[in-house]
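Work Package 4 report. The design task specified in the project plan requires that, given a folded chain encoded as structure tokens, an amino acid be chosen for each position. We show below one input record used in the internal validation round.
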């Protein structure tokens, strides 16, 4: 035991996070690392265990490729995380054909199983000591992150009728006959459109009896936004997610943010009729993260329940990706109008928006107000202060917001009733 990591360094032993699905494999590798190598070994049986053990700041992570362990997903998450992305990761597997895939996902080395103890420990030693390896990983991170997002191919799709309506509305001279013909190809969407057109949300005194009638009264852009509101619910209702994610509270929050943003835009006399839709879609990234990274999102929710951390920060910490980032990808894959993409991407940092700080600011303040009034749940119990950039951009003060509170609250109460129609 003279050649142990502990006695060589004269310091604390280096920590190795050993992630092996098979308990026997784990015992075997632990024997080398602990008894012969002198390393401190943290054992993980699943990708979720890996994520939980990262708080011990291992010096090296050794993962196998067993599908049941889901370790490669954990590797992707580690590589997206600002704090953890430089920890070297070695794959220990007999599936040599998976080497290119593992490297692509961010592994630094591959140890072929079985390996003689000297070869195994030699590789571990090299990975623990190689600074250049870590730098190479960091340099490649920015490009890799972008590629990872592009590779997310399980995003839900919108009902086709929305794309058709969007295409037609790009022509300002499109006739209401043409538009209604397209909308009527989807009877369920047409029915919901009529129900919404007749609701207090629009406040018309006479009954709207046909899609054509709705288009004439509401105008193309409002109809397009209303169809998008319906389409978003259609696209996401089949998504499964974690137990802790309360979709009902999520939609109450989203609609609340939309109503507050819409009312605010009226008070400020800026005509942003898409403000409600911006609220409906602003946190969509949460639903997507919850559906794609279900186990990890459950962890995010549990962390938030512990208190003192926003869902945005917990997403960044555990998944290495926040809902604004993945929401942006979703908006782009759905080809949504720029203003909605900006609201989704930058509602937490409106000043970062380059194309539409106004809508991002309206949604930022809407989010603040809906949280302050306790409408549904934004994922955590914190009430963020309005972003100073948003107040500045809209030329509004906190005192004015206080003054308008009761009108905004009324608008929120009125609009929540349309959720039952949207959910269908
Ligand atoms: Fe958000
Ligand atoms: Fe929100």
């Amino acid at each position: 035991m003279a050649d142990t990591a502990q006695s060589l360094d004269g310091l604390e032993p280096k920590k190795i996070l050993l992630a092996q699905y098979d308990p026997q494999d784990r015992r075997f590798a632990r024997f080398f690392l602990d008894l012969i190598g002198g390393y401190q070994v943290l054992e993980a049986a699943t990708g979720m265990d890996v994520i939980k053990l990262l708080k011990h700041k291992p010096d090296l992570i050794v993962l196998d490729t067993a599908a049941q362990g889901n370790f490669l997903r954990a590797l992707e998450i580690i590589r997206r995380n600002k704090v953890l992305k430089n920890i070297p990761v070695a794959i220990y597997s007999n599936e040599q054909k998976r080497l290119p895939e593992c490297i692509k996902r961010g592994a630094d080395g591959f140890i072929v199983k079985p390996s003689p103890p000297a070869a195994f420990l030699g590789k571990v030693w090299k990975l623990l000591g190689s600074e250049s390896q870590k730098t190479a990983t960091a340099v490649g991170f920015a490009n890799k992150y972008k590629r990872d997002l592009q590779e997310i191919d399980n995003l839900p799709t919108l009902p086709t009728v929305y794309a058709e309506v969007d295409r037609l509305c790009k022509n300002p001279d499109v006739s209401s006959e043409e538009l209604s013909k397209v909308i009527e190809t989807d009877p369920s969407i047409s029915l919901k459109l009529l129900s919404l057109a007749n609701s207090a949300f629009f406040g018309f005194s006479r009954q709207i009896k046909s899609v054509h009638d709705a288009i004439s009264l509401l105008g193309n852009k409002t109809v397009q936004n209303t169809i998008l509101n319906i389409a978003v619910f259609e696209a996401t209702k089949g998504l499964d997610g974690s137990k802790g994610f309360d979709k009902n509270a999520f939609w109450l929050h989203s609609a609340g943010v939309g109503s507050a943003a819409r009312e605010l835009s009226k008070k400020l006399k800026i005509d942003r009729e898409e403000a409600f839709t911006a609220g409906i879609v602003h946190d969509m990234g949460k639903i997507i993260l919850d559906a794609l990274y279900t186990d990890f999102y459950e962890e995010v929710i549990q962390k938030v329940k512990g208190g003192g951390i926003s869902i945005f920060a917990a997403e960044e910490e555990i998944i290495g990706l926040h809902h604004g980032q993945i929401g942006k990808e979703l908006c782009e894959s759905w080809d949504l109008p720029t203003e909605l993409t900006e609201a989704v991407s930058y509602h937490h940092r409106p000043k970062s928006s380059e194309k539409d700080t106004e809508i991002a600011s309206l949604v930022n303040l809407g989010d603040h107000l809906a949280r302050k009034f306790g409408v549904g749940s934004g994922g955590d119990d914190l009430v963020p202060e309005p972003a100073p950039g948003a107040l500045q951009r809209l030329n509004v003060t906190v005192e004015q917001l206080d003054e308008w509170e009761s009108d905004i609250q009324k608008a929120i109460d009125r609009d929540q009733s349309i959720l039952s129609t949207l959910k269908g």
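The chain has a mean pLDDT of 87. Validation will be extended to a larger panel in the next phase.
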